[in-house]
Amino acid sequence: MELTDYAQLLIAIPVWFLASIGYYLLFNKAGEDGWKGFVPILNYLTHLKIIGRPWWWIFYLFIPIINVFVFAGMLIELLRSFGKSKIYEQFLIVAVGTFYMLYLGLAKKVQYVGKATELPKEQKSTSKEWAEAIVFAVVAATFIRWLFLEAFTIPTPSMEKSLLVGDFLFVSKFHYGARTPATPIQVPLTHQKIWLTDRITSDGVSSYVDWIQLPQYRLPGFTSVKKNDVVVFNYPPEFEHPVDLKTNYIKRCVATPGDILKITETQVMVNDQPLDNPPKMQFKYYLLTEERINERVFERYDVTDYRQWQGYYTVDTTPEVASELEALPFIREVRLMTTESAEQGIYPDFQAFPWNRDAYGPIQIPGKGWTITLNEENVKKYGSVIRDYEWNDDVEIREGKLFMGGQEIQEYTFKQNYYFMMGDNRHNSEDSRFWGFVPEDHIVGKAFFIWLSLDPNGTFLGKIRWSRFFNLIR
């Protein structure tokens, strides 16, 4: 068992114990045996009984996504069963259910008034009911989106075939710990623009104002970013938006703070050891052939990105499929497309470091507390990181030297951790090889599971990729 597993237990056990005590106290008030609150499954069955819902609702709690909303509804009905129904009370029990249940159980004035389904409904105007429902839904959804889970969709093929264009996935905020908002004044449930306003103006209407910026902190999480995690993060070089509102990217972490990364003939090496390759990693290949290849051939081998040229095709596919294609009688040769010379636009400086996407490094990933000497080489490698992501004021890079407040700095100690991210579609991914490290304060969360997948090129009946539903992301 890893240290992070123990950390999860240290958090989960006290939370479970406090929730069980809350159930114990509330069950006693409702005339049920309090000990049932400590028995898994039985505690939820008893909960359903005292709010007046059928026992088979228990099965909803085992269905991903649905279980979150069903349990939130069960908590709200538990409130009503104990005479509580105000909006702020509903928010509290959804947001901090364990502690609010303890309060209800310990408060002498709070008593069981009956099954929520059998209680007379409070007389409210239709407009008031709708207003309260909308406010509660927005507040609850905003809270869940910030603290627990957020929905994303895959718009580009940089992670194929691990993640496909049209995959809808949930990203866990609680794995690495949610970030406190840096931009507090924003339209709820938006990111950079207000929905549909791009139809009014070409740039859309901004959903936030940035004249108030708060210091950003990260709440405790269950684990830290590890190699081979699929991570959602804010695109670092996008400086026109605040950190928490930069465009979201998704890539795989291939190196963590302190690691020395090198890419040799497309193989990622970390600390001189080959990193385990993703099982569905793709590269670009030449298919040399004299014939036109029927589209059904590409469909059979699940090749979705291909182009025809004079005497050859280029395709993005896995090494295994490339071998199968090479065995076809009408294909003369399948050759991996590799870059041999220095590649313009490569990080940190293709003139000083003649690297490319297939032959890169070595370079060490900065970590919190790591001190470096700012010689010319290190200024080229890390100067932009110190200037752009370390919350330093008045930083300049001139003639291979770094100046802070007008004074040349000879050495520097990093204030936060950094990560190196790459797409699984290695020849069709804009990633850390081109724009550098991902700072820890840009990390959004861990890609968790796919809840829906739609093929943008599929026909009406074949639009949904049923086999991808509820797949865990690895």
Provide a concise account of the structure shown:
The protein is of the alpha+beta class and 474 residues long.
Segments where pLDDT lies below 50 for 5+ residues?
A: 1-9
User: Radius of gyration, rounded?
Assistant: 27 Å
Proportion of residues in β-strands: 15-25%
Q: Determine the N-to-C terminus distance.
A: 19 Å
Continuous helix count: 10
Overall outline: globular
Q: What structural class should be given to the helix and strand makeup?
A: alpha+beta
Major sheet description: 7 strands, antiparallel
> What sequence of helices (H) and strands (E) makes up the elements?
HHHHHHEEEEEEEEHEEHEEEHEEEEEHEE
* Helix percentage: 25-40%
Mean pLDDT: 89
What is the total tally of β strands? 20
Question: How would you write the strand order of the largest sheet?
Answer: 1-2-20-3-4-18-19
